[in-house]
Amino acid sequence: MEKVDAGELLARTLVAAGVRDVFALHGGHLDSFLQGCSRNGLRLIDTRHEATAGHAAEAYARTTGRIGVCAITAGPGFTNSYTAIAQAFVNAVPVLFITSSPPLRETELNVLQGGFDQVAAAAPVTKWAHRVTNPERVPDLVSLAMRTAYGGRPGPVLLEVPIDVFFTPIDERRATRPTGFQVERPAPAPAALRRALDVLGRAQRPVLLLGGGALFPPCYDVVRRFADATRIPVFTTGKAYGMLPAEHPSNCGGTAALGALGAAGTPPDVVVLLGARQGMFAGGRGFGLLPVDAKLIQVDVDPAEIGRIRPVEVAIAAGCRETLQAMLDDAGAWPDWRGWAERVRATPSPTEQLLASESVIAEDGRLHPFHATKALVDALGPDTIYALDGGEMGAWLGMIARSTVPGGVMRSGYLGTLGHSFGFAIGAQVAHPDRRVVQIAGDGAFGFHLQELDTMVRHNLPIVSIVYNNVSWGMSLHGQEAMFGRGSGVISRLRDTDYDRVAMAFGADGERVRDFEAIQPAVRRALDARRPVVLNLEISGDVVHPVMREMVRQPGPDVEVVIPYYESVPVLPALVEAAASSP
């Protein structure tokens, strides 16, 4: 008879599920599990803050198509990770969060790191949250958690294992067995597939918009076969960058490029939303990305997402991979859309054309963010994985950055988090040790978790971190000045900190970059170093990203109330007209 505890059973079950890496921060409640990881060959990547561990697990999932795993201790360990849990939830990314709690036998005794219900707190931002009460149930409950995280619309799950459950040994023969980890996605209904093929077959200017649903499971291979067969123009939302090689004749860029079609007078007549949700990143309730007259074919494994904002011509509640494969199998001959794709790829971006004409040095003497970004991306090359932080910096990179890795341009998504790029970079580098991972953050976001430079150094992660140092919370400052006038910024300015010297104190390399001509040589030195490096770029705080003009509109005859970052409230005649034109 062999005695095992729940920590050992949990580690063995993760290994059986194919897990290799666990992002964590130590807490005594977890020691049974951490020892089990060490015995069973699970690599532990310990961070300096629980939020970073959670963000790293999300990035790991986004760039591999597998479930990320994060272990955090009870009480403040759990609460520190809450932002990461919520972000994975709104971004629909499968992450297993493991935490602990005080002993079950000491409930309601005012004990250490207790006093609140972690499972209840996690429930609103997880697909499933559960407290394990018996050590022998760990294998089948872990299996259930992983199926839940990955099946249907992906998302985070949480297992709480109280410390007495973790540490109590049981006869191994009493333990349950894993009950299976994978869940297949459904195939499209034959009738819906026929309607979709009919609508596509009659389209003159169709486009395919890929979203994060195409990452789980990864379907870049079938996306490429579909693009090869159809030559349909393919656009991607932020989560799906890298699904096609940059040079592929159907790769037409991100959503900004899709919006440029309407401005050029050639809007698409059919849009296939493949795992792309209707919402903020597909133009919201406006028609800048999805034209009012365009027919929509929406494919999503979650039926609730189909037609969330506007009606669709064809609804397909199925997996992305399964749907594209069924289309390839059943379509027969496709229309010739090569000429249309060539026109789309040749469509210039009015915004980029305007910005390209501006000086590389802004009026305040610091680097223009558009030109600095172009120089960075050119120097980094197409095989880079980008871990982008939030705020205005993310908008500059989102215009230009591309990656050959599916999911390889990572932004915060719907939660709009700041500080997550450290975790994203760590998770991506652990998942892809042979790839170059570059973290880019504004100086505000960089200050959230700069102690994670220590994590990069300790784990020998050769991440290049680039700080867009504009001495401000850029999006906040520009939003305030757009609303209230020049000089109206309140608690939105920062000091010009030597982040490069901070990096050196943590054992990384650092360099400040002031001149435009110095950007690419500095990037090459950083890449050649093969160790953590911080480049501190002197970026202008005066230049406002064009997206800010859309996010913070000025009062006008059609606007009754300006709501920064969301839809402004239109005056009644404009509201009636918009309702009348809606399909």
Provide structural commentary.
With 583 residues, the protein is of the alpha/beta class. Helices cover 38% and strands 16% of the residues. It folds into 4 domains: 3-174, Thiamin diphosphate (ThDP)-binding fold, Pyr/PP domains (Rossmann fold), CATH 3.40.50.970; 190-348, Rossmann fold; 351-546, Rossmann fold; 553-581, no CATH class. The mean pLDDT is 93. α3 packs parallel to α5. Strands 3-2-4-5-7-6 form a 6-stranded parallel sheet, with helices on both faces.
Topology:
Elements: E1 3-4, H1 6-16, E2 21-24, H2 31-40, E3 43-46, H3 50-64, E4 68-71, H4 76-80, H5 82-90, E5 95-101, H6 118-122, E6 128-131, H7 138-150, E7 157-162, H8 163-167, E8 170-171, H9 190-201, E9 206-210, H10 220-230, E10 234-236, E11 251-254, H11 255-263, E12 270-274, E13 295-299, E14 314-316, H12 320-330, H13 338-346, H14 350-356, H15 369-380, E15 385-388, H16 391-400, E16 409-410, H17 421-431, E17 437-442, H18 443-446, H19 452-458, E18 464-469, H20 474-484, H21 499-505, E19 509-513, H22 519-529, E20 533-538, H23 546-551, E21 559-561, E22 569-570, H24 572-581
Parallel strand pairs: 2-3, 2-4, 4-5, 5-7, 6-7, 9-10, 9-12, 10-11, 12-13, 13-14, 15-16, 15-17, 17-18, 18-20, 19-20
Antiparallel strand pairs: 1-8, 21-22
